[in-house]
From TrEMBL:
Residue stretches spanning the membrane: 73-92, 98-120, 132-152, 172-189, 201-219, 225-246, 267-285, 340-362
Membrane protein topology class: Multi-pass membrane protein
Biased composition (Basic and acidic residues): 52-65
The protein, known as: Phosphatidate cytidylyltransferase
Classification via Pfam families: CTP_transf_1
Amino acid sequence: MTGRSRRGVKFTHKHSHPNGQSAADGRRSSFSDVSEEGSPTKSRGSGTLDNIAEKPRTAEQQRSDYEKKKANFMTRTFWTFVMIGGFFAALFMGHVYIILIITAVQIISFKEVIAIANVPSRARDLRSTKSLNWYFLATTMYFLYGESVIYYFKHIVLVDKVLLPLATHHRFISFILYVFGFVFFVGSLKASHLKFQFAQFGWTHMALFLIVVQSHFIMNNIFEGMFWFFLPVSLVITNDIFAYICGITFGRTQLIKLSPKKTVEGFVGAWVMTVIFGVFFSAALGKSKYFVCPVTDLGANIFTGLQCEPNPVFLPRTFQLPELFFLPPNTTFSVTLAPIQIHTFVFATFASLIAPFGGFFASGLKRTFKIKDFGHSIPGHGGMTDRMDCQFIMGFFTYIYYHTFIAVHKVSLGQVMEIAITGLTDHEQVELIRGMGRYLGNQGLVSNEVRNCLSLIIRD
């Protein structure tokens, strides 16, 4: 019959734009172009054909898909081994190399996160936007790196004539640098781009907090001892591996809609396996002073090692278990282990039950902008952020937990020197040196010649 459409086929009309373009023309999505479900807002005028089966793929197309998957698998495998080899090489070469890796990771991750919210057409009109992003990154890194260096290396920074003024006024200098950027941002505002500029400003600060600030705490973990960097990283990687193995083995129940492949069974199974791995791995790692000692020599490596009095948390202790009501009276059990193994249970639990939500957060972010990966920094793996999304929050937690429950608070050489330099007058500093000279001489730690030489050199 005429005038009727065929069953199963809808015929719709596209609404024309006044300038002759279709309203359904595609364009790059921005903050305002994405629906809450993470997919582009569909135009009512877009034509659809329902219930029409796709043509079966030819043998040539299937062969082409197989070759692409094979090539991607080979690339992914190759770069996996490259990353593993590079990581362990840096780990054994010393703390400086790990710090360089963390620096590179945070810069690349910041670049990837900033890029996904960028709108090229507007960025071309506002060239200052990209420059401001990098300026705020440099300012933040200057502040955070300076804080770490001053805190852990006071005994070096505070005795240097050039570095002393920078260390004394570090926070004020950092604040002024940020204020310059803020003033420049306000001065560059344009009435026709206000929404985009403020969105970029907020997006940049979110990236600075989630990536750069959390990376700063990971670096502080390295200064406290390589153990506090390597163990959390290992727990997150182990959990990721066992989540995949347990998920494909007996996973049935979907865990979260943001990551459809994640299952409750894989989530719980990975937690159990990560705890078991962590308890034994922390005991083995805690026996090496290279890993447990705080950084006192940036030139140290796995072969030279470090020397220190280990934190009591690494020393084995015997724990007496309480009597159980269903056992005969006076029946007791004891277990010998290092307290760090108990703390590792907490670390492993956080790495298994909380840290994965950093990955879920990243998945939601990618869905919002309709992208598969944050970038292509690592061939076969996607972006750097795709590999580090769980590590940032894990490192942050490790820092907080360590300084709350594990760190031994005692006066350090750097703290004493800071008090003497900033809190004593020149005359008092001279008297302090004389008094220390007499004390060391009386203890037999320095000769009388050295003590007399100090008395001659130091004058009021």
